[in-house]
């Protein structure tokens, strides 16, 4: 696999990085967390201006016609700045809806790309029952990102024994904000109690299509975690270079050097696994789902390990509320759990091998 970025991909990464550096300081993340808000409007509009939500939408529907690799590049930068907001979920839902066929499809895709609507992905224990020309959706999901601030939910459900993903207006569902470790994002329980939707709003049908959606989300969470880990590594290098003990920087101690080198080595592995999986999904190779689970399992384990080492090397200051390290550690721990933890993906790897 060639992991070299194209000129366009490099430009996307660099522009995204610059925009987030200018518009998503840690103070913004803390302010939103204190206010219980999921999205910063200014940051959201900046993401819309860069075309994030239309990255994977086909060009004939006014999208960029890109793939999971490009989404992962953005997700990695979002993780590196612990940016709030359902950017990647909206982009994935926009691409999925663009491939569907129902009356309101074009209007929904346009609103998602233009940023006037937002979306989230809800996976849990949902069922859909056919009643005439409608579906009745029942069930519950936990830890749905920004569900209280979106307009649409792409809900994975069982319909007559077959997996589907259906588009549900969020106003028709009950959303309850949860308290989690993550201070940078809002997480919700979503409950559908006999929610009626047009039968045409089945966006994805069959195990393969629904699994592809879940694989995409797994890889994008892995990319987010990678960004978190890379930022923690840079924070640790900077801190150990400046912090002195016995008259010298602690970064000069061999044990500290070895620990930092190990952190960098683990992140190189996460990078390789994540982008290999993204490329496999874009190429639609038979092993793509296997690669997605490998990436999510490895990122879940290793980025959390990197976060733990960063905390140890920061010493007492790393435990304080005023230091930004805890924002990254908390996000890493939630990334570890969502869309399948390491144990769940190890089981999938075993089943698919």
TrEMBL record:
The keyword Flavoprotein applies. It holds the Pfam family Acyl-CoA_dh_1. Coiled coil: none annotated. Residues 206-347 form the Acyl-CoA dehydrogenase/oxidase C-terminal domain. Keywords: FAD, Flavoprotein, Oxidoreductase. Gene3D superfamilies: Acyl-CoA dehydrogenase/oxidase, N-terminal domain, Butyryl-CoA Dehydrogenase, subunit A, domain 2, Butyryl-CoA Dehydrogenase, subunit A, domain 3. Residues 6-94 form the Acyl-CoA dehydrogenase/oxidase N-terminal domain. Transmembrane segments: none annotated. InterPro entries: Acyl-CoA_Oxase/DH_mid-dom_sf, AcylCo_DH-like_C, AcylCo_DH/oxidase_C, AcylCoA_DH/ox_N, AcylCoA_DH/ox_N_sf, AcylCoA_DH/oxidase_NM_dom_sf. GO terms for molecular function: acyl-CoA dehydrogenase activity; flavin adenine dinucleotide binding. Belongs to the acyl-CoA dehydrogenase family. This is Alkylation response protein AidB-like acyl-CoA dehydrogenase. It comes from Nocardioides panzhihuensis.
């Amino acid at each position: 696999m060639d992991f070299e970025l194209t000129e366009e991909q490099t430009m996307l990464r660099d522009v995204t990085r610059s925009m987030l550096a200018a518009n998503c300081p840690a103070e913004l993340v803390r302010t939103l967390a204190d206010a219980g808000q999921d999205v910063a409007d200014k940051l959201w509009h900046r993401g819309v201006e860069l075309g994030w939500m239309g990255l994977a939408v086909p060009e004939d529907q006014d999208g960029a016609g890109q793939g999971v690799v490009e989404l992962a590049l953005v997700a990695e930068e979002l993780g590196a700045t612990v940016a709030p907001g359902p950017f990647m979920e909206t982009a994935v839902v926009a691409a999925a809806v663009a491939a569907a066929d129902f009356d309101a499809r074009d209007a929904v895709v346009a609103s998602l790309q233009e940023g006037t609507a937002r979306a989230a992905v809800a996976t849990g224990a949902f069922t859909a029952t056919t009643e005439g020309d409608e579906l009745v959706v029942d069930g519950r999901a936990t830890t749905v990102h920004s569900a209280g601030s979106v307009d649409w939910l792409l809900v994975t459900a069982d319909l007559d024994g077959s997996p589907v993903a259906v588009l549900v207006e969020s106003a028709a569902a009950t959303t309850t904000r949860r308290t989690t470790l993550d201070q940078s994002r809002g997480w919700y329980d979503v409950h559908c109690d006999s929610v009626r939707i047009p039968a045409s709003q089945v966006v994805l049908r069959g195990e393969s299509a629904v699994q592809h959606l879940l694989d995409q989300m797994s890889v994008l969470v892995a990319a987010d975690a990678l960004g978190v880990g890379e930022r923690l590594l840079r924070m640790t290098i900077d801190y150990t270079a400046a912090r002195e003990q016995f008259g010298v920087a602690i970064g000069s101690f061999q044990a500290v050097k070895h620990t930092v080198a190990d952190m960098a080595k683990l992140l190189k592995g996460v990078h390789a696994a994540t982008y290999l999986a993204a490329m496999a999904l874009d190429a639609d190779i038979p092993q793509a789902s296997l690669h997605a689970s490998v990436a999510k399992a490895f990122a879940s384990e290793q980025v959390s390990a990197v976060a733990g080492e960063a905390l140890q090397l920061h010493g007492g200051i790393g435990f304080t509320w005023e230091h930004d390290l805890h924002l990254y550690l908390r996000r890493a721990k939630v990334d570890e759990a969502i869309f399948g933890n390491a144990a769940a993906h190890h089981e999938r790897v075993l089943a698919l091998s």
